Amino acid sequence: MPELVFEVLQESDGGYCAECLTESIFTEADTWDGLRKNVLEAASAFFFDRPRPDRVRLHLVRDETLLVVCDIQVELGALYQGTALAVPQRTHGQRL
Q: Which of these, 53, 54, 87, 88, could form a disulfide with 1 (CB 3.0-4.6 Å)?
């Protein structure tokens, strides 16, 4: 096996979790250096009785959610001014 790929997520507390995409290997650590060490140890333990991979790739995934806020404050008169729309006209007793 030439390469193992681990998907790495940074937790909200600052630590890291790594999960192998092709084998059942999972590990975590508080620091990036600690995670690198733990991934190599976990892979070594997983492949103790068979050939080990040539390389291990750590793929850091950043999942970020952005809040989109649309704050439009327009006065009614300004809304119709300078546009092709006409201001609706009321006739007596008619509701718009």
A: 53
- The tokens of 46 are what? 């997983």
The 10 Å Cβ neighbour count of residue 56 is 19
**Contacts within 8 Å (CB) and 24+ apart, 90-95:** none
Helices within the chain (DSSP H only): 32-46, 76-80
Give SS3 for 42: helix
Tokens of 54: 């040539």
Give tens-digit pLDDT for 1-58.
789 999 999 998 999 999 999 999 999 999 999 999 999 999 999 999 999 999 999 9
Q: For residue 66, give the 3-state DSSP assignment.
A: coil
Cβ atoms of residues 21 and 8 within 8 Å: no
